[in-house]
Amino acid sequence: MHRITSILIFSVVLAIVVVTSLVLFSFTPSFKEQGSDTANLTTHSIAAQNKTQLRYPVNNTFYDEKLKKYETKNQHVKSIFSKCGTDSHCATDSMSTLSRNETKQTVLDTLNEITASYDTMGMLCHNQAHHLGEFLYGYSGNLTEALLIADRKCGGGLYHGIMKNYFQTELFFEKANADTIPVRESCDILGNNPYSHIRLECTHGTGHALSRAYNLDVFSALKRCDEFNSSIDQRACYRGVFMENL
């Protein structure tokens, strides 16, 4: 009897693992290339949507030491790397401090060189970019502007962080209800082509944001993802929901 029970339990667990794997793979679309207090809101997640993010670092110490010795004409970047290395919280805090004392152009140039340096080194920088994207939205205070400033370096992490901070700001500062924060048009400023990589980074980031907005309630978040018109956008959003829950 005990043996039969054990076999049944094992079969159920195996079935769950197989179904979960199939679901996650089914949410991966085939891509075609087509042509300030809120700055400190931070949450954690990781995803990889471009080839750079498939290159894993040798170890954190290697990149930490490399960044701390980084040479550049931008003294703000040099100072942040020297102080923070690979520490994403430290880099975000340093950018917040910089934003209170320097011009907007200086702040954006510094942000761009930081993410470009991470990316060029082959560092797994998606998590750092998430935090910097959160900073970017907090600094800008405008979703449209922040999305237009962002780019796809570090696996599109800037877009993901922007969307997460946007939703958190709406919830906690604007007292919005998670059910009423607009989803369908949230990424339209990046174009309506569902195959556009930058739009997919945004819709994927929306999935991350929805997952947090609903306190990791997968079903509520997925239901909001269905508001996107395109099935490709929907699947990118689904993927963000699941990744935020990993």
Question: Can you describe what's shown?
Answer:
By secondary structure, the protein is mostly helical. It has one domain (34-244). Helix content is 63%, strand content 0%. It is globular, with a radius of gyration of 19 Å.
Please indicate the percent range of residues in DSSP E strands (runs of 2 or more): under 5%
Q: Structural class of the secondary elements?
A: mainly alpha
Morphology call:
globular
Total number of strands: 0
The count of domains is 1
Average pLDDT over all residues: 81
Largest sheet: none
Please count the helical segments: 11
Helix content: 55-70%
- What is the N-to-C order of secondary-structure elements (H for helix, E for strand)? HHHHHHHHHHH
Low-confidence stretches: 1-58
Kindly provide the radius of gyration, computed on alpha-carbon positions and rounded to a whole number of angstroms. Answer: 19 Å
Span from first to last CA? 36 Å
* Assembly type: single chain
Short description:
The chain is mostly helical and 246 residues long. Helix content is 63%, strand content 0%.
What keywords describe this structure?
246 residues, mainly alpha, globular
Layout of helices and strands:
Blueprint: H1 2-26, H2 60-68, H3 75-84, H4 88-99, H5 104-120, H6 126-140, H7 143-149, H8 153-172, H9 197-213, H10 218-225, H11 231-244
Helix pairs in contact: 3-4, 4-6, 6-7, 6-8, 8-9, 9-10, 9-11, 10-11
